[in-house]
Amino acid sequence: MHQPTLPARSIDAYAAVTDRERLDRLRSLAGALSDVRVLHVNSTAVGGGVAELLRSIVPVSTDLGVDTDWLVMDADDEFFAVTKAMHNGLQGDDSPLTEEMKATYRAVNERNAVEIESEYDLVVIHDPQPLGTIDRLRDRLPDAPIVWRCHIDLTDPSPAHLSFVSAYTTRVDHAIFSREAYGAPIETPPSSVVYPSIDPLAAKNRALDDDAVAAACDRLDPLSFDTPVVTQISRFDPWKDQFGTLEIFRRAREQVPSLQLVLVGSMAGDDPDGLEIYEQVAREAVTEPDVHVLTDLPDETVNVLQRRSDVVVQKSIREGFGLVVSEALWKRTPVVGSNVGGIPLQIEDGNTGYLVEPDDVAGAGDHVVELLQDEDRRTSFGTNARERVRERFLLPRQLADQLAIYVEVLDRDS
Q: Please, which of 96, 145, 347, 382 could form a disulfide with 332 given CB 3.0 to 4.6 Å?
């Protein structure tokens, strides 16, 4: 396992974007955990939403006085092919899960678990990939509660994958889901719901000066913001349905001929299928001069793209939460998103954007056109969106929810 390099973060810096009462609560909860060491374990340090969350949560926790570490698994492509199949199976894809795949999963988890040598009072395991470390952790840290933080959509899992993962989740001390419905199919001990959040101070979300915006726009050339721009930012993954977004674009372009589409995705270190999907999308769009398929952009460039786009689309088929929705809403850009997973928790239909069923390409295209042709509505939605994210989906709220669970699990007095 290895420990990622983390940025400096001060809780005081969040006073400009959240209310004092919430910051006071955070400090009170942290005070109850001042003698506690917390370990977060996940499978990648780059390219995924979990990594982005931990990159902010861990240093802010430390600044609050809660001694917090983050370890990332060391694994090869064979292991990540297995865990990607597990991820897809838990989200409804009936892919095989063979005994050989299970053996690979167990062996890599065992090898990583023996590398955890420090003492911890609480361990948080993120998603299914590191769940196989639980037996070794129980032996190594017998008094430390283990919390499983599930970030994926479990509403329609494959029975084989669910059974395999449930054999581990029954042995954790507490589970955290992003929606109540996600915990229903899987057997766990007591559980809680915590909505994920964005970090408003991270490079992807913070306010930018004119020079930074100009530099990012230069990097996006030949994209021009002189004509309408629609954007989707997602991992290149079948569940994100970039092909459906292309169809939405083509429908909207019939009424807005100058429309441009930008499809941006990162390559997560634990997703071996990302490059293949990227290449498929790029081939599909190669004859479309107004479609730009981009990958691994700097965070500041993504920030500018979300700010300068007229509409953002999130055409997911399944979605654990989809924080890219809140990222766009925070920047006052309305979103047309699928009514799946965590997206309807973020979009207030008809007030900050629009919700459509994941197969409703025509409806999504029509909503995109409505927003492109009505500047006043875009402005109104953007104002509402910024405030909704401020209230519900910024990091201080999420961290307070998590620390409250730690206090409960450790039986501390806050």
A: 382
CA 385/CA 332 separation, integer angstroms: 6
Q: List pLDDT tens digits, range 43-71.
A: 999 877 899 999 999 999 999 999 999 99
Q: How far apart are CA 251 and CA 261, in angstroms?
A: 12
What's residue 268's pLDDT?
66
For the chain, the straight-line distance linking the first and the last C-alpha, in angstroms and rounded, comes to 33
pLDDT at 290: 96
Domain 210-392 fold is: Rossmann fold (3.40.50)
Tell me the whole-structure pTM to 2 decimals: 0.91
Q: Is-same-fold flag (11-197+394-409; 210-392)? A: yes
Q: What is the pLDDT of residues 106-152, one digit of tens each?
A: 999 999 999 999 999 999 999 999 999 999 999 999 999 999 999 99
How does residue 216 score in pLDDT terms, banded at 50, 70 and 90?
very high
CATH topology of domain 11-197+394-409: Rossmann fold (3.40.50)
